[in-house]
Design brief:
Radius of gyration: 21 Å
Helix content: 55-70%
CATH architecture: Orthogonal Bundle
Number of domains: 1
Domain HTH hxlR-type: 24-122
InterPro entries: HTH_HxlR, WH-like_DNA-bd_sf, WH_DNA-bd_sf
CATH topology: Arc Repressor Mutant, subunit A
Distance between the termini: 48 Å
Number of helices: 6
Pfam families: HxlR
CATH superfamily: Winged helix-like DNA-binding domain superfamily/Winged helix DNA-binding domain
Keywords: DNA-binding, Transcription, Transcription regulation
Shape: extended
Largest sheet: 3 strands, antiparallel
Strand order of the largest sheet: 1-3-2
Structural class: mainly alpha
Number of strands: 3
Strand content: 5-15%
Organism: Fodinicola feengrottensis
Length: 131
């Protein structure tokens, strides 16, 4: 029976850890929610439905490709609903679902915490960088 070297054990433990992360609900959703475009799109839709062009104006700096990918990701995760109205031209609206709306208080709490503690974080970063 072969025994694993220390490096082999670390590699095996790392694979197990990464496999567990992939199955962890918190990790799965935090990976999506930590994306800056996701946060900005959710905030843009907080006040009600918008067309793509409206979202694009609010989320300045996002390329068309990035904004489209972000909206698809949010729709896939059930946070945003896309509705198509057959007209000329076709009208497409995006709005938060009930699930997406339930995320807004969490997002606002994180924003409030960041605004309250940014000075503390800046001070800690400066002290760290001086060491």
């Amino acid at each position: 029976m072969a025994t694993l070297s220390a490096a082999g054990r670390r590699d095996a433990e790392s694979r197990d850890y990464n496999a567990n992360l992939a199955e962890c609900p918190g990790h799965q959703l935090l990976a999506t929610l930590s994306d800056k475009w996701v946060t900005l799109v959710l905030s843009a839709l907080a006040d009600g439905p918008l067309r793509y062009s409206g979202i694009s104006r609010i989320v300045a700096g996002a390329s068309q490709k990035m904004l489209t990918q972000t909206l698809r990701k949010l729709e896939r995760d059930g946070l945003v609903a896309r509705s198509v109205t057959p007209s000329v031209p076709v009208r497409v609206d995006y709005e938060l679902t009930a699930l997406g709306e339930s995320l807004l208080p969490v997002q606002r709490a994180i924003k409030t915490w960041a605004e309250t503690h940014i000075e503390d974080v800046a001070t800690a970063r400066e002290a760290y960088d001086q060491r």
